[in-house]
């Protein structure tokens, strides 16, 4: 299965702003993603980050306003790139692009670009809120240029407010969203549950499972790349939350309440969380001591079945996708779950198979639809690649 995020051609423009110090990390992330990057710097950008540093990371010379040759670089570079990212984009460059001024290599290349242009304004908060800057941003948006709003937080000048450039990993997410080969989920709303739950025995011990949440997050991120608005209800795992609305929960009961609260909002519900089936009947408010105990018996009671509850409450047109993590008779158990919980699709997962299951980056999944007129499919590979293919099947099969 080919990764659509690799071997992409990214044109990166850098303007004069203190946030330029973050850009070497972005260039490194792009090359690690096995994509190619050409870097254009304005003259003032060189005051904040060295061209030699960026050239070493990109594996090629950096373009500046000096050293033009007969190749007409602004035309050649803008034709080469699949996406043109300008980060940081200063107030000055923002105004030039908005008004069609092409007085350096970077702004000339933007004017010649036919690929998506993605701007990341970064400046002092008072500059950012100035009506002239905001009017330029709105002008660019109307023309189809993608302007990613600045973030709020501590600024280099010592102030705090809106004007921060996103972190390099977040810029890369936005870049790949622009590069995504399809945007067929625009206007769609996706709710995903991910990760394990912790069912506490006492304040320091709990029952859980090894779920890392990677498959659920991959489903969420792939839907976001395709244009969807996404919310993730996450158990106690790390989630790269950029662009996603994340609700943090711990127990199965908390996850159920969060799902109920968001269910009416969603067009698609992906139940990828490995929810604990049981919790202790009698939680101890104090730590259970081992002294004087050779054995410890815990009485367990069933947790609510969240997927079955969603299947019961599912409205007309809402699509419910579940997961079945099994260790034997995987497909048969998955089909039984599909029918019993009123799912539209189930993804059968043999967690004992090599390179599959919990806490790994790869997986093997069988997509089984409730509509038996649709074909079953088996996906093997990186979880993010699989998630992207799953959405293609769900949307277009």
Can you walk through the features of this model?
There is one protein chain. With 397 residues, the protein is an alpha/beta fold. It folds into two domains: 9-179, Flavin prenyltransferase-like (Rossmann fold, 3-Layer(aba) Sandwich); 189-287 and 295-396, 3-Layer(aba) Sandwich (Rossmann fold). Helix content is 32%, strand content 24%. It has 13 helices and 19 strands. The chain has helices spanning 23-32, 51-58, 73-80, 91-98, 105-112, 125-129, 131-142, 168-179, 214-225, 252-263, 306-313, 330-340, 383-396; strands at 9-14, 36-41, 83-89, 117-121, 146-147, 151-154, 160-164, 189-194, 199-202, 205-207, 229-234, 245-248, 268-271, 278-280, 300-302, 319-326, 345-350, 362-369, 377-382. The protein has an eight-stranded mixed sheet, with helices on both faces. A hairpin with a 5-residue loop joins strand 6 and strand 7 (160-164). Helix 3 packs across helix 5 and helix 9 (214-225) crosses helix 13. The longest helix has 14 residues, at 383-396. The chain is elongated.
Please count the helical segments. Answer: 13
Q: What is the topology, as strand order, of the major beta sheet?
A: 12-11-8-13-16-17-18-19
- Give the count of structural domains: 2
- The H-level CATH homologous superfamily of the largest domain, spelled out, is CoaB-like
Q: What distance separates the N and C termini?
A: 18 Å
CATH topology heading of the largest domain: Rossmann fold
What summary fits the major beta sheet? Answer: 8 strands, mixed
Note poorly predicted spans. none
Portion in strands = 15-25%
**Structural class of the secondary elements?**
alpha/beta
Rg from alpha-carbon coordinates? 25 Å
Helix content: 25-40%
- What would the average pLDDT be, to the nearest integer? 94
What is the strand tally? 19
């Amino acid at each position: 299965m080919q990764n659509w995020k690799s071997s992409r051609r990214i044109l990166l423009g850098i303007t004069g702003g203190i946030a330029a110090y973050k850009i070497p990390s972005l260039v490194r992330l792009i090359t690690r993603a096995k994509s190619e990057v050409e870097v254009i710097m304005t003259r003032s950008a060189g005051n904040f980050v060295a061209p030699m540093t960026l050239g070493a990371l990109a594996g090629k010379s950096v373009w500046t306003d000096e050293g033009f040759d007969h190749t007409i670089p602004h035309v050649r570079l803008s034709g080469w790139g699949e996406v043109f990212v300008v980060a940081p984009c200063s107030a000055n460059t923002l105004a030039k692009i908005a008004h069609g001024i092409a007085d350096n290599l970077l702004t000339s290349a933007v004017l010649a670009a036919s690929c998506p242009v993605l701007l990341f304004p970064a400046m002092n908060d008072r500059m950012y809120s100035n009506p002239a800057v905001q009017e330029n941003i709105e002008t660019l948006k109307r023309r189809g240029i993608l302007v990613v709003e600045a973030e709020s937080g501590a600024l280099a000048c010592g102030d705090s407010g809106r004007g921060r450039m996103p972190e390099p990993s977040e810029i890369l997410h936005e870049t790949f969203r622009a590069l995504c080969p399809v945007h067929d989920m625009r206007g769609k709303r996706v709710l995903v549950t991910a990760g394990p739950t912790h069912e506490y025995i006492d304040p320091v011990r709990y029952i859980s499972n090894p779920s890392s949440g990677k498959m659920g997050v991959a489903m969420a991120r792939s839907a976001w790349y395709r244009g969807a608005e996404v919310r993730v209800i996450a158990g106690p795992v790390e989630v790269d939350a950029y662009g996603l609305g994340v609700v943090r929960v711990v127990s199965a009961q908390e996850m159920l309440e969060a799902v109920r609260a968001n269910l009416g909002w969603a067009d698609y519900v992906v139940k990828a969380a490995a929810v604990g089936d049981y919790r202790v009947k009698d939680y101890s408010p104090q730590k259970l001591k081992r002294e004087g105990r050779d054995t410890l018996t815990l009485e367990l009671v069933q947790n609510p079945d969240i997927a079955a509850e969603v299947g019961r409450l599912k409205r007309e047109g809402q699509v419910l996708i579940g997961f079945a993590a099994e260790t034997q008779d995987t497909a048969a158990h998955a089909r039984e779950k599909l029918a019993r919980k009123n799912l539209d699709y189930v993804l059968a997962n043999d967690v004992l198979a090599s390179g599959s299951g919990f806490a790994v980056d790869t997986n093997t999944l069988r997509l089984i639809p409730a509509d038996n007129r649709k074909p079953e499919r088996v996906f093997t590979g990186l979880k993010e690649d699989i998630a992207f293919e799953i959405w293609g099947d769900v949307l277009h099969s």
